[in-house]
Design brief:
Its EC number is 2.7.13.3. The protein is of the alpha+beta class. The protein is 62% helix and 9% strand. The chain has helices spanning 17-35, 44-54, 56-60, 65-83, 91-106, 110-126, 135-216, 221-250, 266-275, 293-313, 352-363, and strands at 280-286, 319-325, 329-336, 367-372, 378-385. Strand 2 (319-325) and strand 3 form a beta hairpin. Helix 4 runs parallel beside helix 6 (110-126), helix 7 (135-216) crosses helix 10 and helix 7 packs across helix 11.
């Protein structure tokens, strides 16, 4: 005995062109069979109507299995009991085989499928089998045949559902893998941006100090020694930053990464630049309010990028740093004068720092501007809204 199982949804529930074609052929053959039967008792048009109803599972059984099987069973019962009460008709039995398969294959619930199978069995037992000379063997054969095609349809439904579930699982895995790839790509970009922000500044200062110390080593050993000390300090800071980033990359998911620097470390950043020979002046007198961490981090990175660019492209030029807050926005400006005439830019940047900084500013709804000034200097300015954009 088959027990009730969970609801199963068929894979395909549409109407196919070949189903309609088979239904038309079935109606033609069934109508001709009843018309040629010696037991024809009802009007031929009504037999044709019953033939059309018996063909419904072929045409619409995939979409409406319950209604299609019920209509076919009712039509076959009317034809075999009242219109053409004959045991020689093959089409009503074929219609019940198709209906039983439809019930097993397309009925969404097992209980409904069993009820529809019962309708098919009832039609055969009340119609052709009841008037047969040997109803026991005939009934056994018909019952086994209907059960067999019903089970065949049910097995196809199970296989279709398993295939659909496998496709859904593969699609979910693909979507999950896509999201992971996107997250990894975003994380790589963030790491590359942070790497540039935290290390490039220190390395740039180290290169500048090394160049200067090489030029003055013979003339002013004390100044060269001071420059080497600054290089050492910047190198140690760069190593600390690298270790912190590697710690973030290696730590377990439940660990807490070190927070990025904010305006609280701004004075230390400027002092480091000054010790490396950058003539930097910091003005925070117009910074009148405490800022959210995302704004503070971006402001710090803006100053860091401005100092790095000034040291790289205009060594020896004065650098002005201004932070100003209004009720609506934060403005960070880093400007430098033209490089002294006897100094040339020792290094050339790749533009990665500005690109990464622009991403930071844009993500917060702000605007970043960078470009040369009329006096030959350079200005970097970030305008950030104090409330989410």
């Amino acid at each position: 005995m088959v027990s009730n199982g969970p609801s199963q949804r068929p894979q395909s529930q549409g109407t196919t062109w070949w189903g309609g074609l088979l239904a038309v052929a079935f109606v033609a053959v069934a109508t001709a069979e009843s018309a040629s039967s010696a037991d024809l008792a009802g009007p031929q048009w009504l037999n044709g109507l019953c033939a059309a109803a018996m063909a419904v599972p072929l045409a619409t059984g995939r979409r409406y299995p319950t209604a299609a099987v019920a209509a076919a069973a009712a039509a076959a019962t009317v034809q075999t009991i009242w219109l053409t009460p004959s045991t020689d008709l093959a089409m009503p039995f074929l219609a019940m085989l198709i209906a039983a398969y439809t019930a097993g294959r397309y009925a969404p619930h097992r209980r409904v499928a069993l009820i529809l199978l019962g309708l098919c069995l009832a039609e055969e037992w009340t119609g052709p089998i009841a008037v047969n000379r040997d109803p026991v063997w005939d009934g056994l054969f018909v019952s086994l045949a209907l059960w067999a095609v019903w089970l065949l349809g049910r097995s196809f439904l199970t296989r279709a559902n398993l295939a659909q579930a496998e496709r859904a699982r593969l699609e979910a895995e693909w979507e999950r893998a896509t999201q992971i790839r996107r997250a990894v790509t975003a994380e790589r970009h963030a790491v590359a941006r942070d790497l540039h922000d935290t290390v490039a500044h220190a390395v740039t200062l180290m290169v500048l100090q090394a160049t200067g110390s090489r030029l003055i080593a013979r003339k002013d050993p004390a100044a060269a020694a001071a420059a080497m000390a600054s290089i050492e300090k910047a190198g140690r800071q760069a190593m600390d930053d690298l270790r912190a980033m590697l710690h973030v990359l290696r730590q377990e998911p439940d660990g807490r990464p070190a927070p990025p620097p904010t305006l609280e470390q701004l004075n230390a950043l400027v002092e480091t630049a000054r010790s490396s020979g950058v003539d930097a002046v910091l003005d925070t007198s117009a910074l009148t309010a405490e800022l959210p961490r995302p704004l503070a981090v971006t402001a710090y990175r803006t100053v860091q990028e401005g100092l790095t660019n000034a040291a790289r492209h205009a060594p020896g030029a004065p650098v002005g740093i201004t932070l100003r807050t209004t009720p609506r926005q934060l403005t960070v400006t880093v400007t430098n004068a033209p490089a002294p005439g006897d100094r040339s830019s020792p290094t050339t940047g790749s533009g990665t720092g500005l690109a990464g900084l622009r991403e930071r500013v844009t993500a917060l709804g702000g605007v970043l501007t960078a470009g040369p000034q009329p006096d030959g200097g350079y200005a970097l300015a970030a305008t950030l809204p104090r409330s989410p954009a």
